[in-house]
Amino acid sequence: MRPLLLSLPLLSLGGCAMLMPGPNPDQAWIDLKPQDGQAIQASRVDNQALADSHYLQVTPGHHELEVRLEFDVGGTDIGENSTSYRRTCLLKLAYGDFTAGERYQLEAGGIGFRPWARLYDEQNREVAKARESRCGDV
């Protein structure tokens, strides 16, 4: 009985992993990669809300992506004796050459108060930079 109880958490983790679909070869797959201690979620593609915020797949061609980034602003960036706080921003990234079957990586983070995000292709070349859309209560 004890081995069964110990294996239940592992089995439930495997079930969660199965919920993530595999890449569609007719679309481009975009992995979301935040820096340590930060969180990123897919929000919209071409102004359409997404059902799942953990991954992005898009058809070939031009698309505008919107992601929600949460990052820490250090106390030293605010002022003397200040404590850090969590900032949330929406970032938009436009790229005109998504290729079917290719896997892209969207890396994001924050420097001081400023969020950033960059899109890399499979050869790890930067192909696009995001612009800050808005920050605050998003």
TrEMBL record:
It comes from Metapseudomonas resinovorans NBRC 106553. This is Lipoprotein.
